[in-house]
Amino acid sequence: MDITVVGAGYVGLVSAACFADFGHSVTCVDTDSTKVENLKIGTIPIFEPGLDDLVTRNISADRLRFTTNLKAAVKGASVIFIAVGTPSRRGDGHADLSYVYQAARDIAGTVEGYTIIVLKSTVPVGTGDEVESIIRSARPDLQFSVVSNPEFLREGAAIGDFKRPDRIVIGTEEERARDVMSEVYRPLFLNQSPIFFTERRTSELIKYASNAFLAVKITFINEIADLCELADANVQDVARGMGLDNRIGQKFLHAGPGYGGSCFPKDTAALVKTAQDYGGALRIVETAAAVNDQRKRAMARKVIAACGGSVKGKTIGLLGLTFKPNTDDMRDAPSIAIVQALLDAGATVNVTDPIGMAQAQGVISGVTFYPDAYTCADNASALVLVTEWDAYRALDFPRLRELMHLPILVDLRNVYRAAEIERHGFIYNSVGHKPSRPKSLLRAVS
Ligand code: UDX
C-alpha cells in the first residue's frame, strides 16, 4: 500500500519507519530541507533507540523515502497521515492547529482519486470535522475520508509501542475508510493487537482522555508519596498494594519529581481548554496540572531540606536532565525547574546526562556541565538523581563518597533503597519515604 506521512517529527518519523517495516511503500515529507537531506542518508534528528537502524534498513529496501516535495509525495498515495506538530498555543494553552490546517490545504490542492487523510497528530475533538470542511471547500468533487488515528507512543520505547500496541484506535463513520485502515494495520493483527473502531470525534477525545488520565494517575501517587513522607509509610509498597488490584493496575504509579515531556503538560492544558470551550470543566485534570507544576520546585525544597535547610554557597550535582531516560528530550523536564530553584537558593549547580547534554545546554544556563556522575559529584554537598538512566542505577558509592564534600543522595526516582546507601555512610532521601538522617552526618550538614 502507498502511504504518505506528512511531518518527519517524532510521531511522523517513527510511524513512517514502522509502516515501511511492515512492507508498505512509504514517503515521508517535511518542509525542513536539512532534516530531509540528513534522513535520506539515515541521519536521525532525535535520539530514539532502534530508530536509526529501522530507517536505514527500510531506505535500503526502497520502502522508505524522504522528500520536501509535498505535491509529489501525496500524488497517488491512497492513505496520507498528517503527523505535524500541535504545540501549545502561546498564551492560552490551546493546541496550535495551524500546521495541521496548512497540511490539509496543501493536500487538498494535490490529491487524486479516493484518498484517506488520517489525523495522527494529537488534535482536539472536532479537528477532523474542520479538516474535512477545508478539503471539501477546496475540492468539492474529491472523494475522500478524514479519519482519526491517534498515536500512543512513548518516547524511548516508540518502536515497540508501535509494533506491539495495547490498542489501535480508528475513528471513522465510513465503511470504505474502515476497510482501508484495516489493510494499513493488517500486519499488527498477527500480534493480536486489538483494533478499536469508533466515531471520529470520540477517537480524538480518547487520545486526550488517555494522556490526561495517566497524568492524573502519576499526580495522585505523587501526592500519596508526600503523605507517606509525613506519615512514615512506604509509597512503593502502597503503589504495589494498590496495583495488585486489577482495576487499578501497577503501571504509572511510580512516584517521582512530576511528569514532563512533550505530551502530558501540553495535552492536559489543551483538554482543559476544550472542556471550557464546550461550557464544561475538567477540574480534576486542571488540578493535576497545577499540582504537577508546583511539584518540580518542591523537589528543590526537598534537596534544600536534605542539606540542612540551606544550599547557599554549596555545590549540588544533578544526575539526569531529560524528562525521562532513553530520550534526549528536554521539553518540560523537571530538571529545568529544579536547577532554577537551586540557583535561586544560592547553590552552585553541576549537571550531567548520558544523552541529553546538547539539548539541555539549550534550555539550562548558569550551571556547569560534566561528562559523568563522578566528575559531576566532585566536591558536591549533595547529589540529586533526577532521571533514572541505567548509568545511575549502579553507582560506585565508595568512590562518590571520596569525591563529595558531603555524602548526601536525594533520589527523586526511588532507584535505591535506604539501607544499601546508608551502609556507605550516605544520608539518603527519596520520594515517599520518611527521610532518614544519621545524627553524626546531620551535624556535619548543619
Ligand atoms: C506519553 C504517553 O505515555 C504516550 O502514550 C503518548 O503518546 C505521549 O505521552 P511520553 O511523554 O513519551 O509518552 O512519556 P511517558 O513514559 O508516558 O512518561 C511521561 C512522564 O511521566 C515522564 O516525565 C515520566 O518520568 C513520568 N512518569 C511516568 C512518572 O513520573 N511516573 C510513572 O509512573 C510514569
From TrEMBL:
Catalytic activity, EC: 1.1.1.22
Keyword NAD: yes
InterPro entries tied to this protein: 6-PGluconate_DH-like_C_sf (IPR008927), NAD(P)-bd_dom_sf (IPR036291), UDP-Glc/GDP-Man (IPR017476), UDP-Glc/GDP-Man_DH_C (IPR014027), UDP-Glc/GDP-Man_DH_C_sf (IPR036220), UDP-Glc/GDP-Man_DH_dimer (IPR014026), UDP-Glc/GDP-Man_DH_N (IPR001732), UDPglc_DH_bac (IPR028357)
Keywords: NAD, Oxidoreductase
Entry's transmembrane regions: none
Residues reported to bind NAD(+): 30, 35, 86, 122, 155, 266, 331
SMART domains registered for this protein in UniProt: UDPG_MGDP_dh_C
Sections of the chain in a coiled coil: none
Pfam families: UDPG_MGDP_dh, UDPG_MGDP_dh_C, UDPG_MGDP_dh_N
Occurrences of domain UDP-glucose/GDP-mannose dehydrogenase C-terminal (ranges): 317-418
Leading EC class: oxidoreductase
GO molecular function: NAD binding; UDP-glucose 6-dehydrogenase activity
GO BP of this protein: polysaccharide biosynthetic process; UDP-glucuronate biosynthetic process
Pathway: Nucleotide-sugar biosynthesis; UDP-alpha-D-glucuronate biosynthesis; UDP-alpha-D-glucuronate from UDP-alpha-D-glucose: step 1/1
SUPFAM superfamilies, alphabetized: 6-phosphogluconate dehydrogenase C-terminal domain-like, NAD(P)-binding Rossmann-fold domains, UDP-glucose/GDP-mannose dehydrogenase C-terminal domain
Reaction catalyzed: UDP-alpha-D-glucose + 2 NAD(+) + H2O = UDP-alpha-D-glucuronate + 2 NADH + 3 H(+)
Family label: Belongs to the UDP-glucose/GDP-mannose dehydrogenase family.
Protein name: UDP-glucose 6-dehydrogenase
Source organism of the structure: Tardiphaga robiniae
